[in-house]
């Protein structure tokens, strides 16, 4: 399966890039999708409101006005830069070590905190990290025996739920009244997706937030999903699941009263070009094995995106670029070229992943090929992806990265 061929083959919305394999998509007689027609542009609360809010927290804390966490990725780097340089807050920055931080992210954290001259601390619980790594190996080996597109994110993203708690605790103990972030560390509305739970028929709102009923549905679904896979029958997996579910469901109750959590991108527009050009000037760099500048901080995402593309011809980029097209940030043609390049598998990262997870590439592909048939039967019947998989397109046993990155294309673009 060649990722470029699959990318070009898929039948896409004529306005954005969403293919007919995307959850809950409907294309009308003009080939325009329901997301283009129904999704109103996201309106931020505005910079004036943000400045007024910041003013309430200036000089309240002893040494710092706020915490702007840095993950090594692009969005949190921009938030940190803006809080220091533009909004002149007394900023403490920190990183929660999940145990899955990439070398690129370590490099960015060091360079940027140095260049901005801000105080940085690591919140690191070695025992928790070791446990999260062990659990991920167990869960992924179990996943390979019994794969599912629905749970690949929770399988590979251990400990994510604990991050906010660790940051809340630090802020509260150190008397810092404001924590900048989003759901996790500085995510924007552009980056919340429908694809993660869409095939289950569960969809979040514009902020990536699920209703209480949907949260409960997800907790029960994932609980059943983990429990019914006997490879997951370990005390540590059970404990991780119960803790994660509890935090997920009661996150707002777990926030200390003396700390406020504010989403930067709920106020200030997320403009990719501005973000990347600003942080590049203070030394931020992407990864060598991909053209995307998104999620290069988290080692799980090369594999998560690969699995989604392999199983349904989509990954997170297609949703992001479609939103950017709708917001007028990028033309469809430009988005097509970039998205195709960004969707290519990150071979070096994947190879590191196989070895850390204790699996072979062949084992994973055998499992994926078997599961893809089930996936097509259950969710992708009659789509261009099904035709593509059963047509006589030249193919290899797995996705390849042979084509150069960002190769211009004219096919299937208006
Ligand atoms: Zn569309």
Give me a quick take on this structure:
The protein has 414 residues and is mainly α. Helices cover 50% and strands 5% of the residues.
Walk me through what this model shows:
This protein has 414 residues and is mainly alpha-helical. It has a domain at 47-267: Rossmann fold (3-Layer(aba) Sandwich), CATH 3.40.50. 50% of the residues lie in helices and 5% in strands. The chain is built from 19 helices and five strands. A five-stranded parallel sheet has the order 3-2-1-4-5. Helix 4 (74-86) links the parallel strand 1 and strand 2 (91-96). Helix 4 packs parallel to helix 5 (103-116) and helix 10 (212-227) packs antiparallel against helix 11 (235-250). The radius of gyration is 21 Å and the shape is globular. Residues 400-414 have low confidence and may be disordered. Zinc ion binds at residues 13, 15-16, 18, 32-33, 35-36.
Features:
414 residues, mainly alpha, Rossmann fold, 5-stranded parallel sheet, 19 helices, 5 strands, 5% strand, globular, disordered C terminus, binds zinc ion
Q: What gyration radius follows from the Cα positions, in whole Å?
A: 21 Å
The distinct ligands, each listed once, are: zinc ion
Mean pLDDT reading:
89
Q: Helix/strand/pairing class, anyone?
A: mainly alpha
Strand order of the largest sheet: 3-2-1-4-5
At CATH level 3, the topology of the domain at 47-267 is Rossmann fold
